[in-house]
Write a structure and sequence with these properties.
The chain has 10 helices and 15 strands. By secondary structure, it is an alpha+beta fold. Bound molecules: zinc ion.
């Protein structure tokens, strides 16, 4: 089986290389934005959708017209148009499915500056060769496996990083799942996740990482200080850099936490049942505190990590339908009732069950996923909760 993976490292460019990076990402952004503008124009006038092929021809003309575009590697510019093309593909795909996707947006300077090479790069011990730029050093924190398919350079605040997208050919073992090695996972706000583990539904939980709270408080303070500075003054920019650094730190710390948790889970269990996340919808519907907690906990990323790690080990990952009412069902007798957001305990008037709301949901997810008969007396009804902490 072929696995796609990314390896990301911090670059150590010299001054000249930094200038190249800024210039290349500027060119890539220009081509992306101009391509987007052209698509809009043509669509409004002729109701036609431009494709990558059409736009690539236009690109040749732009390169004659604009001098500074010539200094950038042509494949970087083509790649930019390919990215635009996939943004549109994604947009139309979601539209077809009946969603309300956001229309592809124009890129602004400093907002995710990046550019990509599909080929022409080389690698030695701790340097990467980029066409037209030369050998750039990077901090090699771990070995790269697989065949490198493309190289992306991205700005994060003051720093630049390189990501290698690779393809790895790997034999996947076949793991036959049992209920005992299964786990239902409910992602919550009070704790990061509640687990219902194995046949007897042992309760487990993963708390929110503690450092996150203090760092978020720091962000709030920094934002306030920034708002007091004179807009676009020297001090303002200096402080904005500091804020960007803090954001980067939080992002790294959170990814680290999510990696650790997902690795541990995939080591200890064989089958995962999770709820379908409509994080975006929830973000829009929920109130502010809830919103904050959701956006900060990185659920989507967590499920992505869990999924790819499970698949790599031949284990099973199942996301349940978004319509499955995991919170509303009684995990004992299967009756359904609505709970308000602040009701933390599920109490069933019918069978008398009284259980932590998230644990009840996790049990439902596991039961529905594993198609265990949903009736009183089933194994998971006697949810005697022993706590196993991660
Ligand atoms: Zn009940």
């Amino acid at each position: 089986m072929k696995i796609l993976k990314g390896f990301k490292y911090r670059l150590r460019p010299n001054r000249k290389q930094r200038e190249f990076f800024a210039q290349f990402s500027g060119c890539a952004r220009y081509v992306y934005n101009r391509g987007l503008e052209r698509r809009q124009e043509v669509y409004e006038k002729e109701k036609k959708t431009l494709r990558y092929f059409d736009q690539n021809k236009e690109l040749t003309a732009w390169r004659y017209e604009i001098d500074w575009l010539k200094s950038c590697h042509s494949q970087v510019l083509q790649q930019s148009l390919k990215d635009l093309n996939s943004a549109f593909d994604h947009f139309f795909r979601r539209l077809k499915k009946g969603g309300e996707p956001g229309f592809p947006r124009f890129k602004r300077k400093g907002d995710g500056d990046s550019f990509r090479f599909p080929q022409g790069f080389k690698l030695d011990e701790s340097r990467v060769y980029l066409p037209k730029i030369g050998w750039v050093r990077f901090r090699k924190s771990r070995e790269i496996e697989g065949e490198i398919k493309q190289v992306t350079i991205t700005r994060e605040g003051d720093c630049w990083s390189v990501s290698f997208s690779v393809e790895i050919e790997r034999a996947i073992p076949e793991v036959i799942p049992t209920l005992e090695r299964s786990v239902g996972i409910d992602l919550g706000c009070s704790v990061f996740a509640k687990l219902a583990i194995g046949e007897s539904n042992l309760s487990g939980e993963i708390g929110h990482p503690k450092y996150l709270k203090s760092l978020l408080a720091k962000i709030k303070r920094y934002n306030h200080i920034l708002s007091k500075k004179v807009y676009k003054s020297r001090n303002y920019f200096k402080f904005r850099k500091k804020l960007a650094k803090l954001h980067r730190h939080i992002r790294d710390a959170r990814a680290d936490f999510l990696h650790k948790v997902s690795t541990k889970l995939t080591q200890n269990h064989d089958q995962f049942f999770v709820e379908n996340l409509h994080v975006k919808e929830m973000l829009e519907a929920g109130h502010t505190a809830l919103r904050r907690a959701i956006a900060d906990s990185g659920w989507r990323k967590f499920l992505d990590f869990l999924k790819y790690k499970a698949v790599e080990l031949g284990k099973h990952f199942k996301e349940l339908s978004p319509y499955f009412p995991s919170t509303q069902l009684c995990s004992c007798c299967g009756r359904r009732k609505k709970l308000s957001l602040n009701e933390r305990v599920y109490t069933c008037d019918h069978c008398g069950l009284s259980l932590d709301r998230d644990l009840n949901a996790a049990i439902n997810l596991k039961a529905a996923g594993a198609s265990v008969v949903n009736a009183c007396g089933a194994t998971w009804c006697s949810a005697e909760a022993g706590i196993s902490r991660l």
